[in-house]
Structures are given as C-alpha cells and as structure tokens.
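Postdoc handover notes: sequence design on the structure in folder B. Input tokens:
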C-alpha cells in the first residue's frame, strides 16, 4: 500500500512516498526549483517520488497533508471573535484553506489526470510533526514534543506514545509561540529571511546574557509546562500583519513592535547591513537562554507525569541544536530521536505515517535512520553530464579522472590532507537542512585558518557561524564529553578540552560542536573516507558543510559542476568521477 505525503503551501514544501509503513523517497521542492524554503505546491517532488518507483498518481492509495483546517476550529473561531483578529490574518488563513481545498484540482492538472482515485486525508499539523519523529524512531514508547511557530492553531504539543498510539498530554495554543518569539528577535537582530534563526544560534556563543532579565518579563512560564507571551510586543495578530506562503520563499512583515522592544531593551533593531556589536551578540545569547527556559519547562513537566526516558522531537524549533544538546544533561531523558527534517518538510512523512498507523494499528513501526531519500544519478549519467559540460564550460582545462572505490577513497583522503577543499557528491540526496555526506563540502578539520579559507573559496558567510564535524561513530567517546547517536547533526555538544586544539576548524567559540556521527550501515563510502583519514592522521573527523553557495543544497550533478566552476573549490567528486583544478 502506497501513501503519498505532501507539505504544500507551508515553508519547505515537500513530498514523500511510503510503502507499507516504510519510507521509499522524500525530497524538498527547493532542491528542484532552486528557491530556498519554497512554499507552494510540491509538483516536482511528487513527480520524483512517483517516477522513481514507476508509479502513476492513481497507483497510490491515499494522499496526506500535514495540516487540517478543522483542527481546533472552535478555538480558532472563539479567539478570532474575542480578540478581533486582524483582517489580513484571517484572509490569509481562508486563502490557504481554499488552496488546500483545491488540492485535488491542482493534482489533477499537474498530472494530466481525469480523475483522482486516492482519497486526500488532512492530518493535524503537530500530529504530523510528532509522527515524523516517533514513527521513525527506534522507540516502542516515548514522550514526543512538537514545537514550532504555529500550525493548526497550536505552537507546542506534548504527547505520550505507546504501542503505536499517540496520546496528547498538553498543547500551547496560538498566539503564544516559542517559534514566533525566536523569529521575532531574529528579525530584530537584522536577519529577516525565513529560516534565519540558525544564524542567531551561532551568534549566541559570542554574547553575554545581559538581556535575559528583560526578555523574561514578556514570557510567563506556567507550572503545567505551558507559557504565555505578552503579545503587545508582537505584531502577529494585533496590527496589519501580512505573510505570504504562496509559492516562492515565505515572507513576513516585521513581527516586532518596535517601540515596545526599544523601551524594553534600550537597543534599536539592527539594520540588515549594520555592523554586529557586542549588544547584538548578547541579545542572541539572551534569546537562546529564554527559549531554553520555555523548552525545559515543558520537558520538566512531561517528566513529572511520566517516567519514560525516550524523547522524540520535531517542529521547526527542534532544529535548535544548541538547546537539543543540553537535554540529556538537564533532564532525565536518556535517548533522543530527532529526524533529519524536523521542520515542515518532514511533515509530509509525518502525515503519511500517521495515517498508515491509524489504518494498521497492530503493525510495528520501522526505525527509519536513513536520511538519504532524494535523487541519485548513475556513473553513466555523470559521465554524460561531464561530456556536455566539457563543450559548454570548457572542462578540458581541469583534470578529469575516474576511479574504482578504493582508489577514490585513497586519492580523496590524500587530497584532503594536503589542504584541498572537496565538493563531495555521492548517492541519494539527504532530506532536511543538513548535508550528511552525500551533498557535502569536506576538508581537514586540523587546519587553523580553514574557516577563513572556506569563506574566501566558497561560502562567504557570516564569520560567527561555526562549521560542523562528522565523526566515526565509534570514536565519539574519545573526542566528546557526551556520547550519543547523532546521525542527522541535530545536537550540539562540548568537545573534550584536550582535543580542542587538534581540530580548531570545527569547534565553536564556546568549545562546542554540532556533531554528526557516521556509521558504515548508513553511509559506507563516507564512513570509509573518514576511516582512511583516521588511519593516516589519527583524527576520525572531517569538516562537513553543505554543498552550496548561498542557494539550496545542490541536487543534480550539473548544479555541483556549476558550483565548482563559480567558486574556488579545489576538487569535485561526482560518484566515481573527479574533476580537479590543474
Ligand atoms: Fe510546523
């Protein structure tokens, strides 16, 4: 039984295909149309999922979405009436509802079909997030938390999951939202693009928490794990606020009430091009600290009412790897599972799995520890692509080679040790925001000024943002204070003090790393590359950053070739092929 899950008209539009409860394919639309966080109908993603398995749209049994307009409908209506919600917010909601109602027509048109056999089932937004985590985790029972801006009128949902059943423990409803709180202050710090919160997370390590007491005044934590936010500081529903999810990158007006925040912080909002001062770094550190208070208040409550030691996290805020890395230390949770796409992109998987396990209550869910669910390209395809580009872009001026597996590992490892920056393109593309060894830029983490070098050669990104390590899983205990499985790079953890100077390129200013653990089963070629590097250097770690240059991560070989040509990458590896500057 096939189910097609989609995330449409939300940020990170995506599609997935599951068969009998197992994920076969999942991909984000931005990788095809090259527009970051694209938010419309995921036509190309759906086509990829179906084509890869030779299916027609009418071969699937159900189509699921990760939003249900009728979730919390009575609460929505009463809130709108009581608070005299701003008209544009309501209009936006209704437009999106109409689009989703017209989903059937959009699908029929896109796939040139006369009739649609699969039924469209809408699953609540947060139940989709939670399902994307719990039904992919290795746990039979867990507490799960979905935490984001908001979806279907809620921003935080806690559930207890046992025997494939998901039971809601508590919900924080609109307009109280940790995600909106974080996004608002991210905008205040001058980062106004959708999804810029990770930049502020990077800034936090450089600041002092001198604004925490100010921000505490607008967030009221409650004993039941919930919280209230003083909404007079936010424009979300009490001014002429507008946002747009209608295709393209999602856009938002300024969420902050400038006068109120200026008064509270005695600090002006930062202009996009203004220098970043110590005050800005301190506001980032304080914001992170208050977000963590909200998170740990909810997690502490979940532990008061349950003795379960397994935690599943999802939702946009579950990408706060800095906070995630503190959970094992600050709570009694011993095991944490966060999927590779905790954001709305993973909602396509969550809605599909939620429906599957509603229909198959007795089945056990799979441990789906594989983020490599996107497109892949054969050596033959790559050979032809290189041939095409040899004429178009004069690739003759580079050395082009073709190696067997072991030769490739040995050659690339030696080149990394010589200080080269490698574009590493292998197998199926990762689902989610992190490159995990299939669409990665790799280099030697021992090089001191590597961060500057990478920024000159390719990345051109803010100097306060750290680069991350990938480590052979079995060596984690030798290099980090805490040992845990982190295959999707979703947790930050301190490196051992004595190791800090050995790998300066991947350690943040506060002595932490956003670590990826790599095992052979999940990614044999990346594992073997790390192993060879370890053999020659005694360091089981490579710097791993996403293969892109201010764009979505590369998907096709031609995008990797273009990125190589545009930048100063030293070597491009496409499966078994190597293109190297002479
Ligand atoms: Fe969400």
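Designed sequence:
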């Amino acid at each position: 039984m096939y189910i097609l899950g989609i995330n449409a008209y939300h940020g990170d539009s995506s599609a997935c295909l599951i068969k009998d409860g197992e994920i076969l394919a999942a991909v984000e639309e931005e990788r095809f149309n090259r527009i970051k966080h694209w938010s419309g109908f995921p036509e190309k993603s759906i086509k990829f999922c179906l084509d890869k398995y030779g299916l027609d749209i009418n071969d699937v049994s159900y189509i699921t979405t990760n939003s249900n307009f009728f979730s919390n409908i009575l609460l929505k209506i009463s809130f709108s009436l009581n608070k005299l919600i701003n008209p544009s917010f309501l209009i936006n909601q209704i437009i999106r509802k109409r689009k989703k109602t017209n989903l059937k027509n959009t699908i029929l048109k896109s796939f040139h079909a006369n009739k649609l056999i699969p039924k469209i089932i809408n699953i609540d937004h947060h139940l989709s997030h939670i399902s994307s985590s719990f039904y992919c985790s290795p746990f039979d029972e867990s507490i799960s938390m979905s935490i984001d801006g908001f979806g279907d009128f809620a921003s935080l949902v806690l559930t207890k999951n046992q025997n494939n059943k998901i039971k809601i423990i508590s919900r924080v409803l609109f307009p109280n939202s940790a995600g909106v709180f974080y996004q608002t202050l991210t905008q205040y710090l001058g980062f106004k693009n959708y999804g810029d919160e990770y930049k502020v997370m990077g800034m936090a390590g450089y600041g002092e928490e001198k604004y925490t007491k100010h921000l505490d005044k607008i967030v009221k934590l409650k004993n039941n794990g919930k919280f209230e936010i003083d909404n007079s500081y936010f424009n979300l529903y009490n001014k002429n606020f507008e946002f747009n999810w209608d295709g393209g990158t999602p856009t938002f007006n300024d969420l902050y009430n400038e006068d109120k925040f200026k008064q509270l912080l005695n600090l002006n909002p930062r202009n996009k091009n203004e220098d970043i001062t110590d005050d800005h770094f301190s506001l980032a550190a304080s914001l992170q600290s208050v977000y963590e208070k909200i998170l740990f208040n909810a997690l502490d409550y979940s532990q008061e009412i349950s003795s379960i030691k397994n935690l599943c996290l999802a939702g946009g805020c579950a990408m706060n790897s800095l906070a995630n890395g503190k959970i094992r230390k600050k709570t009694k949770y011993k095991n944490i599972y966060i999927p590779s796409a905790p954001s709305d992109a993973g909602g396509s998987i969550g809605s599909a799995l939620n429906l599957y396990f509603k229909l198959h209550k007795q089945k056990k869910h799979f441990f789906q520890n594989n983020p490599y669910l996107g497109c892949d390209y054969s050596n033959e395809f790559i050979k032809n692509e290189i041939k095409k580009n040899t004429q178009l872009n004069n690739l003759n001026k580079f050395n082009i080679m073709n190696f067997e597996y072991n030769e490739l590992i040995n050659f690339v490892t030696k080149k990394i040790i010589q200080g080269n920056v490698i574009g590493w393109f292998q197998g199926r593309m990762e689902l989610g925001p992190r490159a995990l060894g299939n669409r990665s830029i790799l280099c030697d983490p021992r090089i001191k000024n590597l961060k500057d070098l990478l920024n000159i050669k390719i990345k051109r990104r803010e100097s306060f943002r750290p680069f991350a390590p990938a480590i052979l899983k079995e060596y984690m205990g030798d290099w980090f204070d805490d040992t845990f499985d982190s295959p999707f790079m979703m947790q930050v953890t301190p490196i051992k003090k004595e190791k800090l100077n050995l790998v300066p390129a991947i350690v943040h200013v506060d002595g932490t790393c956003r670590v990826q653990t790599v095992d052979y089963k999940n990614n044999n070629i990346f594992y073997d590359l790390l192993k060879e590097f370890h053999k020659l250097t005694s360091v089981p770690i490579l710097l791993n950053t996403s293969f892109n240059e201010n764009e979505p991560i590369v998907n096709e070989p031609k995008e990797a070739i273009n990125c190589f040509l545009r930048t100063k990458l030293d070597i491009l590896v496409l499966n078994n092929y190597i293109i190297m500057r002479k």
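Context for whoever picks this up: The first helix runs from residue 30 to 33. Don't rerun without checking with the PI first.
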